[in-house]
Design a protein that fits this description.
Elements lengths: L2 H4 L4 E6 L1 H8 L4 E3 L3 E3 L9 E5 L4 E7 L5 E8 L8 H15 L9 E6 L8 E6 L2 E6 L8 H11 L5 E6 L1 H4 L2 H4 L7 E3 L7 E6 L2 E6 L13 H10 L5 E5 L5 H8 L4 E6 L2 H13 L4 H5 L1 E6 L2 H10 L4 E6 L11 H17 L1 E11 L6 H14 L4 E7 L16 E7 L1
Parallel strand pairs: 1-4, 9-10, 14-15, 14-17, 15-16, 17-18
Antiparallel strand pairs: 1-3, 2-6, 4-5, 5-6, 7-8, 8-9, 10-11, 12-13, 18-20, 19-20
Helix pairs in contact: 3-4, 7-8, 11-12, 12-13
The chain binds S-adenosyl-L-homocysteine.
Length: 412
C-alpha cells in the first residue's frame, strides 16, 4: 500500500493534563485534545505517543492528529509494551482466547476483535469463513496495518483471504483521497471480487466484504436473529423492517413462519436477501415460506402496509443509527418513536415487536421509554418481555462502547 502505510512511525513523548491522567488511570482508551499538556505539533497519523504525567510513563498510544480523539491508548502502565508487531500479536491472541468455545461448527463468522474493547481502538476485524475483513476507523492504524493483518492471519490460520476497508472519514482525508481507498482492497486470490459465503447457526449467507455494509454483515445481531427465530416459531406473517440481507427473516422462515417480508430502501440488500433465501432452500421451513421484498423507505412503506390493512404476528425494527452526534439525540428519539407507532399499528393482537437501536448516543432506558410511551399514546400498550445487548463476540468494556440494545415486547 501507499506511502502513508509504509511510513516508519515516529515515537514522541506526550504529556497529559489531569483530565488525560484520569482517563488513562481508569483505562479509558480515548484522549481528547483538551487533555494533552504538551505534544509535538508535526506528528502524523500513526506516530506513537509515549504518555507521561510530569515524569512517569503511563502508557502508549497511537496519534491521530485529524480526529477529535487525538490519542488512542493501546497499552497502559509504566511497563506498557512498545506498539508494534509483538503487541498486535498478543492482542490478537487474547481476543481469540476470549472467543474460544463461543461458536460451534455451524457458525464460521464472528468478530475477531472489537475495537477498543479488544485493545484495537478504532479498528474492527471480522472473520467470514476464510476471509479476514478489517475496517479501519482511524488513520492512526495505517502505518501499522501490515503488522496488524499479519497478527490476525498468524493467530487465525483458517483465514486465507483479506479485505481492508477504510471508513468514509479516513478514506476522504486529503492524504488518502487520491489513492481511492474508498472501495477497499482485496488480497489472497487473483480475480476475487469480495464475495464470500459463510455459516451462521447453520444458515448460509453470502455477502460481499468489499461492498457490503460495515464489514459485510451485521454480526452483532446474531444472537437477536437466533432469538427471533425461536420466538417466531410457526408464526404467521413476519415483517422485517430495515432488513438488509434478510438475516432476521431467514431465522423466522427456518422456524416455520408462513410469510416473511423484507423492507429496506437498498436494492442490493434485498437482492442479497433473495439470494440468501435461495441458499437455504434445503431447510424445509425456508422452502415452505413465502418471501416478499419491498424496496422502499421504511416510514413510507409501513404506512402503506397499514392502509392496505396488512397485519403481522411479528414486526422487527432494526434501523441504522439515527444519532451519530450527541446533538442529534432528541431528533433520533423522535424518529424511534415514529417508527414504534408505525410498527405497533401493523401488529396483530398479542403480536411481537422486536425493536433494536445501534446508536451509542441513545441509552436503552430512554429509548425503550420512548417506544413504550409512543405505543401507549396510540392506544397500543406493550408488555415488555426481555432486553438484550451486543453479541458475546462484541465485548463492550467501557461506557461508550455499549451501543446495541434490543427490546422484545408483546402487544397487550
Ligand atoms: N437487521 C439487519 C441489519 C439492518 S442495518 C441484519 O440483521 O442484518 C440497517 C438497514 O436499514 C440497512 O440495510 C439500510 O439499507 C436500511 N435503511 C436505512 N435507512 C432506511 C430507510 N429510511 N428506509 C428503509 N431502509 C433503510
Amino acid at each position: 500500500m501507499a506511502e502513508l502505510l509504509k511510513r516508519t512511525p515516529r515515537i514522541a513523548a506526550v504529556h497529559l493534563l489531569p483530565k488525560g491522567l484520569q482517563a488513562v488511570r481508569s483505562r479509558h482508551p480515548w484522549i481528547f485534545e483538551d487533555s494533552i499538556a504538551r505534544i509535538p505539533d508535526d506528528l502524523e497519523p500513526g506516530d506513537i505517543a509515549v504518555l507521561f504525567d510530569k515524569k512517569r510513563k503511563l502508557g502508549a498510544a497511537l496519534i491521530d492528529p485529524d480526529s477529535d480523539i487525538r490519542l488512542r491508548v493501546l497499552a497502559f502502565g509504566a511497563t506498557a509494551p512498545d506498539i508494534g508487531p509483538e503487541l498486535f500479536r498478543r492482542l490478537a491472541e487474547k481476543a481469540a482466547a476470549r472467543r474460544r468455545g463461543l461458536f460451534g461448527a455451524d457458525t464460521n463468522a464472528w468478530r475477531l476483535a472489537n475495537g477498543e474493547s479488544d485493545g484495537f481502538p478504532g479498528l474492527a476485524a471480522d472473520r467470514y469463513a476464510d476471509v479476514l475483513s478489517v475496517k479501519v476507523y482511524s488513520a492512526a492504524w495505517l502505518p501499522h496495518l501490515e503488522n496488524v493483518l499479519a497478527a490476525f492471519l498468524a493467530v487465525n490460520p483458517e483465514l486465507k483471504r483479506t479485505s481492508i476497508r477504510l471508513s468514509r472519514e479516513v478514506a476522504s482525508l486529503p492524504a488518502l483521497r487520491r489513492l481511492n481507498y474508498e472501495d477497499g482492497i482485496l488480497r489472497g486470490e487473483p480475480g476475487w471480487d469480495g464475495t464470500v459465503r459463510f455459516l451462521e447457526n447453520g444458515l448460509m449467507f453470502e455477502t460481499n466484504v468489499r461492498f457490503g455494509q460495515k464489514t459485510g454483515f451485521f454480526l452483532d445481531q446474531r444472537e437477536n436473529r437466533a432469538r427471533v427465530g425461536e420466538l417466531a416459531k410457526n408464526a404467521g406473517k413476519v415483517l422485517n423492517v430495515f432488513s438488509y440481507s434478510g438475516g432476521f427473516s431467514l431465522y423466522a422462515a427456518r422456524n416455520g413462519a408462513r410469510e416473511v417480508t423484507d423492507l429496506d430502501f437498498s436494492k442490493p440488500a434485498l437482492e442479497a436477501s433473495e439470494r440468501n433465501f435461495e441458499l437455504n432452500r434445503h431447510w424445509p421451513g425456508v422452502a415452505a415460506c413465502r418471501h416478499r421484498t419491498i424496496p422502499d423507505d421504511a416510514f413510507h412503506a409501513m404506512l402503506e402496509l397499514e392502509k392496505r390493512g396488512e397485519r403481522f404476528a411479528v414486526v422487527i425494527v432494526d434501523p441504522p443509527s439515527f444519532a451519530k452526534a450527541a446533538n442529534e439525540r432528541k431528533q433520533a428519539l423522535n424518529s424511534y418513536s415514529r417508527l414504534a407507532v408505525r410498527a405497533v399499528r401493523l401488529l396483530k393482537k398479542h403480536g411481537l415487536l422486536v425493536f433494536a437501536s445501534c446508536s451509542s448516543r441513545v441509552q436503552a432506558d430512554e429509548l425503550f421509554a420512548a417506544v413504550h410511551a409512543a405505543a401507549s399514546n396510540e392506544g397500543f400498550p406493550l408488555r415488555e418481555l426481555e432486553r438484550r445487548a451486543e453479541a458475546p463476540d462484541h465485548p463492550a468494556d467501557f461506557r461508550e462502547s455499549h451501543y446495541l440494545k434490543c427490546m422484545y415486547a408483546a402487544l397487550r
